[in-house]
Here is the input.
Amino acid sequence: MNEINIQFGTDGWRGIIAERFTFRGVKIVSRAVSNYLNKKSGGRRKPRVVLGYDTRFLSDQFARTAAGVFTMNNIETYLSERIIPTPVLSYAVVNKKADLGVMITASHNPYYYNGYKIKGSFGSSATMDIIKGIEVELDEVMGNIARYEKSLNFEGEDDVDIKGFDFLSAYRENILSQIDRDIIKDLNFSLLLEPMYGASRGIFIDILKSISRANIYEMHSILNPGFGGINPEPIGDNLNEAREVLKNKDYKLAICLDGDGDRIAALGEDGNYISSHHLYSIILWYLAHVKKIKGKVVKSVNLSSTIDKICARYNLELVTTPVGFKYIVEEIMKGGVIMGGEESGGLWAGGSIPERDGMLMGLKLLEILSTLGMTVNQVLEKIYNEFGYFVFTRIDYETDLKQKKNLQAITLKGIPGVLKEAGVKNVVTLDGYKYIMEDGSWLMIRPSGTEAVVRVYAEGDSEEKTNYLHKLGKAIIDSAI
Here is the structure.
C-alpha cells in the first residue's frame, strides 16, 4: 500500500484535507511521535502530551484520533475539551508539564487545509532537534508499516478512553497577569474584534470584557469551517468586511487575529491596515523609548527594515533569522531578548513562555495606547516622523514543484537582469532571495514552506515604490512559470 508523503515544513505538517492530510496520516505521525517520546524517556517514566484543535473541518476528530494513538502507546494524554487557539494549547504544555504539545490546525492557510503543529515542552514551536528526532521515527514507521498496522487501524475513540480537559482557565489567568488591567479597564474608545471565524472567537472578547468597560464588538463569531470563503489570515482584502464595519460603526481600532489566534494585525481609525511590521515597530519603540528597556531584538529576514532603524537608534542588538517562529524561539530561549517576531504576524514581547500570541499582543497594544493616551495612527505618525514612512506588501503566487525548480534555477544564476537594471546593491540569501536596492527598499522572493505558493515581499517608502518592486518580482515569477 502506498503511504502518504508526509513532510514537515516551517511549522509542522500541513496538507489538503483528504488528499494529504488524512486520518491515516495523523495516525502515522502520532505513532512516530509516540516512538520518539518513549525512546527519549527510556522507560523511566510515562511521557505526557497535550492536544488541542481549532475550528477547521474535522479538527476535533483528527485530535481525538491522535489522542487515541498516544493512549494506545503508553503516552499520558490530555485532550482539550473544546476548540482553543494555539496559544492556549502552548500554555497548557507548560502548565501540565508535558513533554510535547500537538495542535490540530493549519493556522492561516485556506479552509481546505489542516495541520499538525508540534510544540516543545517549553510551550512553543518545536526546535529543529525535536523535529529531526520525530522525522527519524517517521521514516522508521513508514519503512516498516506492517509492524505498526495494529496501532494504525483502531476504530477510533470507542477503542480508547479519552477525557477532555479545561486548558482555557489557566491560560486566561496567566495572560491577565502579564498586563496592566487597571489601564485597560479605562480604555476610552470603541473596539472591534475580528477573529476571522477562528479559534479565538468568543474567547478574546470574554477576556477583554472581564477587565474593560469599553464598547467592544466581535464580528464573524459563529462557527464556520469555511471561514466565509476567505483565508483566515489578517491581510489585504481578507479584512474588507472588518474595514467596512469599523467605518460604519465608528470604531477606533480593530484587532484582527488569524485562524488559530497566534498571529495579529489591526485596522486604524481610518480603516488603514496595520500589519505585523507596524505593530512590531510600535511595541518595540514603546519598550525602547518609553520603558527604556535594553536587550536583544530578533526578527525574521522578511520583516521590515524599520526594526533595524529602531535598534540602531536605541543601541539594541539585532538578530535576523530565517522564516519560521521556531528560529525566533531558539533565540528567545538563549535569554536577553526583549522582542521577537516574524512577517506573518507572530509576535513576542515578554511573557511566561516563548510563544507568539495574538491575544496577548492585542492586550499589550491596548495597554500601550491607553498609557500614551493616543490612537494607533497617532503612535504610527511618531514612528514615521522619526524613522521614515514605510509600506510593506506581500503577494502570493500559486505554483507547482516544476515551477519552483525553474524559479530556483533563475535565482541561483545570480541577480536577475531586471533587478540589476533596477539597481540592486545587495542580496541576502538567509531564506529565499532578498534583493536590497540603493535607497534601502527591498524585494524578496521565497517559496512557502507550508503551501504550494511562492511569496513575493516588498518594502518601500511609498505605495508607488512598493508596487514598482512587486512588478519586478512578478516579472521574475512569470519567467519561471
